[in-house]
């Protein structure tokens, strides 16, 4: 698997640190932030391959962050993590052009699989994938 620079945005410190450790163990280079405002500053300073963000956070939610991040880094792959059913997000989710979706509680194997799929799509096309890559538990 190709090493990816991944920005994690999660207000829950325990989950944020757990994701960071998992991604490091997979050979990636993670950096983490606790809010959308901090994440936007990171995106201005540094180039990332993937953004993983929680939906519900104080201040700016994950979909708002994704919209603003697209303006800074249009080719950045975006993964939304939430406990909210997709149906409740409706048009906001469609307009955001999220590249992947993971349900809480997180399944680490699903996260790893999603990162592999996004990496293959980006490698094959040289840009964001044409199709969204969603992983849902049934």
Characterize the structure shown.
By secondary structure, the protein is α/β, with parallel strands linked by helices. The chain has one domain: Response regulator (Rossmann fold). Helix content is 46%, strand content 20%. Strands 2-1-3-4-5-6 form a six-stranded parallel β-sheet, with helices on both faces. Helix 2 runs parallel beside helix 3. The radius of gyration is 13 Å and the shape is globular. It starts with a strand and ends with a strand.
Which properties best describe this structure?
138 residues; alpha/beta; Rossmann fold; six-stranded parallel beta sheet; 46% helix; 20% strand
Shape: globular
CATH level-four homologous superfamily name: Response regulator
Number of strands: 6
| Radius of gyration using CA atoms only | 13 Å
Q: What fraction, in percent, of the residue positions are helical?
A: 40-55%
How far the N terminus sits from the C terminus, by CA atoms, comes to 27 Å
Listing every helix as H and every strand as E from the N terminus to the C terminus, the arrangement reads EHEHEHEHEHE
The third-level CATH topology is Rossmann fold
């Amino acid at each position: 698997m190709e090493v990816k620079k991944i920005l994690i945005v999660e207000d829950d410190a325990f989950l944020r640190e757990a994701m960071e450790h998992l991604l490091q163990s997979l050979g990636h280079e993670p950096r983490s932030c606790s809010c959308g405002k901090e994440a936007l500053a990171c995106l201005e300073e540094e180039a990332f391959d993937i953004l993983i963000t929680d939906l519900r956070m104080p201040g700016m939610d994950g979909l708002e962050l994704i919209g603003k991040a697209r303006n800074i880094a249009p080719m950045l792959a975006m993964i939304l993590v939430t406990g909210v059913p997709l149906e409740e997000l409706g048009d906001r989710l469609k307009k955001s052009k999220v590249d992947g979706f993971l349900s809480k509680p997180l399944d680490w194997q699903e996260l790893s699989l999603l990162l592999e799929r996004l990496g293959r799509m980006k490698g094959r096309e040289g840009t964001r994938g044409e199709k969204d890559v969603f992983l849902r538990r049934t």
